[in-house]
Specification:
Strand content: 15-25%
Number of strands: 7
Distance between the termini: 43 Å
Helix content: 25-40%
Number of helices: 5
Oligomer: single chain
Length: 174
């Protein structure tokens, strides 16, 4: 039976303390990012000072959660030299930070001794995981939920190991 996964905004709205996001892919083919990625490849860059030109629903949901006291952290495990897509993400990361996220980067070469989950994930309040499944070409396949306490605990520990070793965005250079 297919699993019903609530929208991200609903999951974050139900969050009280923390939401952490682990990204482990070097390229994504997410449809709602394709236009921005193509524009960036063509030389476009956003103006952080012109919030109306880039602020979107995701940023609003994050900002609302932060204003409620939710701590949001994002860790990205990346290969070096970084892919073109990671350069794009790096260029857009100040938007995440402006919305209230804390973002760190971990070069894959520094993660060899860590146990890293096989799929990208969000963990909400150390109680619920939303795994994001992607095809080999980076296209989004599905989200699946997990709330088994032992699974959540292991993945939260894995995230913390990455986070502790990762480099804050303001110090990371590509």
């Amino acid at each position: 039976m297919p699993q019903i996964v609530p929208p991200f905004a609903d999951l974050l709205a139900g969050c009280h303390r923390s939401a952490v996001h682990l990204e482990t892919r070097d390229a994504y083919g997410v449809d709602d990012e394709d236009v921005g990625f193509a524009a960036w490849r063509d030389g476009w860059s956003y103006d952080l000072g012109d919030r109306s030109s880039w602020w979107n629903g995701f940023h609003g949901v994050v900002s609302d959660a932060i204003s409620r006291g939710v701590v949001m952290r994002r860790a990205r495990v990346v290969s070096e030299p970084v892919s073109e897509y990671i350069r794009y993400e790096y260029a857009c990361t100040p938007q995440n930070i402006a919305a209230g996220e804390d973002v760190r980067w971990l070069p894959r070469r520094l993660a060899s001794d860590l146990l890293i989950p096989g799929n990208d994930l969000w963990i909400f309040d150390d109680r619920l995981i939303r795994f994001s499944l992607f095809a080999g070409d980076g296209r989004f396949v599905a989200d699946v939920m997990e709330d088994a306490a032992d699974v959540v605990k292991r993945h939260a520990e894995a995230f913390e190991a990455v986070w502790d070793r990762a480099i804050p965005h303001e110090d990371f250079r590509i």
